[in-house]
Each structure stands twice: as structure tokens, then as C-alpha cells.
Amino acid sequence: MTTTATNERTPVILWLRRDLRLQDNPALNHAAETGRPVIPVYILDEAGEGRPRGAASLWWLDKSLRALAESFAERGASLILRRGDSEAVLRTLITQTGATAVFLNRLFEPEAWARDADIAHGLKAEGIEVKGYNGSLLTRPGSVLNGSGGPYKVFTPFHRFLLATAVQPAHTTGPRDLSGAPDVASETIDDWGLHPQHPDWSRRFDWTPGETGATAELGRFVTHGLANYGKGRDMPGVPATSRLSPYLHWGEISPWRAIAAARKTAADGKVPGAEADKFVAEIGWREFSAHLLHHFPTLPTHAFRPEFDAFPWRDDDVAFAAWTRGQTGYPVVDAGMRQLWATGWMHNRVRMIVASFLIKHLLIDWRRGEAWFWDTLVDADLASNVQNWQWVAGSGADASPYFRIFNPITQGEKFDADGTYVRKWVPELRKVPDRWLHAPWTAAPETLREAGVQLGTHYPHPIVDHTEARNRALEALKTVSGRR
Ligand code: FAD
């Protein structure tokens, strides 16, 4: 073992990953409390955390790192950017700076967890201190266990236990002065080329990644969305949800801060307490997803209920392409898929509808849909994505039963009754009267003519008939052993 001498001028490394913020950042606070110079570093290690990042995530990361670098600069520090294998980069940095400690907020996905454990083991063996904290979840996975000491597999008791035991940390704004770190070479974010070019498909992305954007979005939500959250969160045409998912994923805001803001708004009498509770429960689903993945590492590739791995999926590239492009002929499905492509985000109700359509109407493997979401969502999150896809497929823990097949027509009529959402994302149907908007093929020819729509020319005929597809899905289900 090499021994490393430490004094008050020996720097410490702050290894940032998905904690791209200065406020409420436990690793940053603890690093600063040492009183030693802090070197913040972000390492672009494409496959280091397991699955390589999707294109929309990289778009977000590009902007988020620029914002973070500005925040550090305001406090007298330079954010160091390096690309490569995380362990190799850390070792180089340690040699270049003489740092004797690495502070980090933990990642809980199994592959990232194992990688981090290996790195910590190697560094500690050489006398480097490695300090890990939880900056992303309300409680550390592994700490929420049922009476028999195992992980919860059902949301409600998990959430009840979480609410009873999780302790909210005090809000912190982060150290004011981070100057004094040694000069270290950094790559530039422009060199990383994370922003798409040729073509730049991100022109309609309406986000402000970074801590300031997160705070603004939270402020908007508690002022304008929270009062009607319980009902409004199901209406894709109504801006009632927080849109915090990408900020939470990248750690630009702590989940505790979001919860505290919602609870305070309720405590001040501005919104009913039940609305804040509902919001906290949704953050609870994020937490449940992370805990499930931590305990069941094969969730991204295998059904939680193994009998579903024998499901007779269809290979249908034409139908899959129509789904990705928003050309299925079902307006609410197409609106969702186009919203996703245009903005990198899709409303939760519509995520459920489009996922159900792919899995049940088209009988296409949920893993293909999950991979598409992974590439196109700015909030792509391994735990939440696979948990939700398996929830819709009926193969997950505490999942919706497979036989519950969303009807894309009635879902549209119920949750987008005035057509605001469909008309925004499927403008070729904007003149179709509400009554036929969610099933335009049922309208009389003159109604369509007056609306300027010719099916098959301006907008596709449905690629499957709803009733036939539903019967086919239920037949397919019979082949899954244990479900007959
Ligand atoms: P709000 O309604 O404001 O909720 C607040 C926060 O709670 C969200 O930001 C999110 O962090 C969390 N949350 C809400 N609903 C869920 C949920 N069902 N599961 C887990 N966390 C939830 N969410 C992701 O963050 N990343 C994903 O990759 C992802 N993939 C999904 C795939 C499918 C098929 C489905 C049905 C849902 C998926 N979700 C995913 C969950 C959910 O759709 C989004 O978190 C939500 O739409 C984000 O919008 P919001 O921030 O306005 O949510």
C-alpha cells in the first residue's frame, strides 16, 4: 500500500455524476467541510455506468454541464471535464494534483454500483480516501425492507414505510467560496460534441437544463400546477405536472427539495394537502423504481415475472417504425410519440397509452419500446423506464394486469376531451370536430372533407383494428404459462 500524506492544502476530488447541482449536495458539502481545496470533475465515461446514454440524454448533459461550470465559476472554482475510463481518469487526476480523497454521491443502478465499488476498492488500497453519500434518493436502497428483511415488491406498503422512516435533511445552499484549487487541465464541452448536428433534431426542445432551470420549473409548478395536480396530472393538454423528471434524473434538484416545496405550499394553505401528498406519492414511484432495480438487477433485460419472458412477441419493423414516427392512425398515440420526438419528453398518461399500444395492440416486445424511450427521453432513467415498461406490460412487480388493455380511443376521449393535446401534436387533424377527433375513421366522408383530411393521404388509417388487436393480445396472453 502506498501511503499518502495529507495536510490542509492537499486537495480533494469531487467526482460529479448525476448530482449536477451546488445546493443540497452532500458530497460537495462534505468535501468543502474538510477545509481543503476542492477539485470538481465530471468524467464522460460512455459505458462506465452500464448502458450507454441515449442521444436526448446527451443533449441534456451538454447544457447541464455548461450551467454547472458557470455556477462553480461564480464560486471561484473550475469544473474539470475529462473523457475516458473513470478509474483511469481519477488516477491521472490524483497523480497530477496530489489529491488524497474522492468525494461522490452514489449511483444505485447495479452496474454503476459495482463499478464504483471496484474503483473505491482500488483507490483505498493505495491510501486514497473514498467517501460516498446519497444525494439522489429519499433513502438509500437496501434500507427499506419488509418484515422478513426482503425488498418490498408492492408500492403501497413500500411508500408507507418510506414516509414513516425517511428523514428530510436540512436545506443547504452549498459553499460560497470554492477558490484555491490547483490549476488542472480540462477538456472543453464543445469538443465533446454532445449537441446533435446534421441534423439538429433538438430545435423544439424547450428546456433550461441546470439548477436554475430546475428551481424555475419547481416554482412554476407549486404556483400554477400543484393546486390541480391530482386530476390535472392525467390531462396531457393541461400543464399540471412538474416537468421535474429530467432535473431529478440529473440531480439538478434534490427530491427532498421538490417535496419540501410542495408540502410548504400546502402548509401555507395555498393548495389542499391531498394535492401535495399525491405529488409526494409520484416521487415515491421514482423511489420504488430505484429500489426495485437495485434489488432485481436483471429488470432491464428480463421480466420480473419470468413467465412473461416466453411471451410470443411479433417482429414487425414496419409497425414499430409507424409507432416511433407517430403514424399509427390513433391520434392520441401519434400525438404522444410526436411530442416525445419534438421535445424529448412525454406526458405520463400518454406514456402509458403509447406503451400499451406497442405491447398489446402491436405485440411488440416492451424492450424495443424501452430502448426507444431510452434514446429519445431527456429524463431517460434506467430504473423508472424499465419499471414503468414492465408495469404496462404486466410483467413487473406490482404491475397493471396484462389483460387491462388501454383503449386508445376512449383514453383520448376521456383525458383529452377537448382535443387540446391531439390538435397541438397532430395538426393535420385540428379541424376534425371533437366528437371524431380520437377516431377520425368513424367520421362521415363529408365531415373529414370539411376538416381538410383525407385518410391515407393526410393522416394514416389505423394500422390495426382496436377490437381485433385486443382479441389477439388476449389470445397471446393464453400462451404465457401460469396465466391460462
Ligand atoms: P410529475 O407528475 O410532476 O411527477 C413528479 C416526479 O415523480 C417526476 O418528475 C418523476 O421523477 C416521478 N414520477 C412520476 N411518475 C412516475 C412514475 N410512474 N414512475 C417513476 N417516477 C415517477 N420517468 C422518468 O423519470 N424516466 C423515465 O425513463 C421514465 N420512463 C417511463 C416509461 C413509461 C412507459 C411510463 C409509463 C412512465 C415513465 N416514466 C419515466 C414515469 C413518468 O412518466 C415520468 O416521470 C413523468 O411523466 C415525468 O413528468 P413530471 O416530472 O411532470 O411528473
From TrEMBL:
Q: Which reaction does it catalyse?
A: cyclobutadipyrimidine (in DNA) = 2 pyrimidine residues (in DNA)
Report residues binding FAD.
Answer: Y229, T241, S242, R243, L244, S245, F279, D379, A380, D381
Q: Read off the Pfam families from this record.
A: DNA_photolyase, FAD_binding_7
Q: Which keywords are on file for this protein?
A: Chromophore, FAD, Flavoprotein, Lyase
- EC numbers on record: 4.1.99.3
Q: Where is this site: Electron transfer via tryptophanyl radical?
A: W313, W366, W389
Q: Cofactor: bound how, per the entry note?
A: Binds 1 FAD per subunit.
First-level EC class: lyase
The protein's matches in SUPFAM superfamilies, at most eight in alphabetical order, are given as:
Cryptochrome/photolyase FAD-binding domain, Cryptochrome/photolyase, N-terminal domain
What are the recorded Gene Ontology BP terms?
A: photoreactive repair
- GO molecular function list: deoxyribodipyrimidine photo-lyase activity; DNA binding; FAD binding
Put simply, this protein is called: Deoxyribodipyrimidine photo-lyase
**What taxonomic ancestry is recorded?**
Bacteria, Pseudomonadati, Pseudomonadota, Alphaproteobacteria, Caulobacterales
